[in-house]
Each structure stands twice: as structure tokens, then as C-alpha cells.
Amino acid sequence: MSVTTTQSTKRSTRTTGEMFLRFQLDSQTCAVVPMLQTQEAIVLPAGRVSVIPNLPSPVIGLFNRRSTLLWLVDLPEMLGLEPIDRHTHSYDIALLKVGQTPLAVAVRSIQGVVRFAKDEIESPIGSFNPAFTPYLHGWILQERELVLVLDPEAIINAKVFNPSAVEP
């Protein structure tokens, strides 16, 4: 696993607990995903993404990474937040992998790696917009800021990527 960013990162002073990749979804929403399900974080030039017509709007397109074609998804849009500008010069991307299934998600900015204990994660039920709930493992209060703990498996298996799973 590698983490490559060009922006300054918030460093946690914690040295115990599980590691999570932290990123910004919009100006007010910060989230994390477990590092165990994160291959790497990269900045990808927009010109390397091939836009594919007639796909769900959160799907930005395809790109080649180390001889593998990966789907690039606008994670904020998928979660019902403001979409990432498609006329940008580059995308901040977290490469997620659950089992053998990879998925690249575009976020506003990668903020680095943080640590906290899994038992600090609070239940998301009844706390958030119902559109978020299927993709949440929970939330945590970190440095007086509410941080969403996302579930990479739920994101990768979202109905938006599998039209046959969408009920009529």
C-alpha cells in the first residue's frame, strides 16, 4: 500500500489503533476508509480518464493503472453530495479493493492516514441522511470533528454499479 498526495496532510498523533485513509467529501464532510481495504491514494490527471457514455452519473469513466482498467466513481455524488467538477485538471483518488474487486473513488482531497480504535466508532442508524446509511460503517468524533467511517464493501457493491440489482 502506498499513499501519494501533493497536499499537506493532517497528521494524527495517535500511534495505536487501526489505520484509516482520511479524505474530504465536501467543504463540511470528512470521511475515512480502512487502510486494509485501500490499495493507494493518488492524484490522477483528468486526461487519463476515458469518459464512457450512458453510465450512471456518479461514474466518471475508466482509466488504466498498472495494466488494469479501473472504474472511477465520484464518491461525493454517489453519497448525494455536490459532485466533483468534471472540468478539473486532476482527481484525488482512493483505490479501494474488497476481495479481488477494485474501485477508484474520486474525493475532494486526500488528507492522510489517521488511527483510532474500532470500538470508538458510533452506529450510523438514525444519525444521518438515509442516502448515506447503506455506505456507512459508522462515525467517530475526531479532534472535535465528526468523521464518517465508510464501508468500502458497500460502496463497491452499490446498486448504482449493478443495474440488474436495482428494483423496478
What does this structure look like?
The protein is mostly beta strands and 168 residues long. The chain is 5% helix and 45% strand. The protein contains two helices and eleven strands. The strands form two sheets. It has a six-stranded mixed β-sheet. The protein is globular. The N terminus and C terminus are likely disordered.
Summarize the structure.
The protein is mainly beta and 168 residues long. The chain has helices spanning 75-78, 152-156, and strands spanning 2-3, 18-26, 29-34, 38-45, 59-65, 68-74, 90-98, 101-107, 109-116, 136-142, 145-150.
Query: What about the largest sheet?
Result: 6 strands, mixed
Helix vs. strand class: mainly beta
What is the succession of H and E elements? EEEEEEHEEEEEH
Report helical residue fraction. under 10%
Radius of gyration: 15 Å
Low-confidence stretches: 1-12, 163-168
Q: What is the percentage of strand-forming residues?
A: over 45%
How many individual β-strands? 11
Head-to-tail CA distance between termini: 40 Å
Summary tags:
single chain, 168 residues, mainly beta, five-stranded mixed sheet, 2 helices, 5% helix, globular, disordered N terminus
Mind sketching the topology for me?
Layout: E1 2-3, E2 18-26, E3 29-34, E4 38-45, E5 59-65, E6 68-74, H1 75-78, E7 90-98, E8 101-107, E9 109-116, E10 136-142, E11 145-150, H2 152-156
Parallel strand pairs: 1-4, 3-11, 6-8
Antiparallel strand pairs: 2-3, 2-9, 4-7, 5-6, 7-8, 10-11
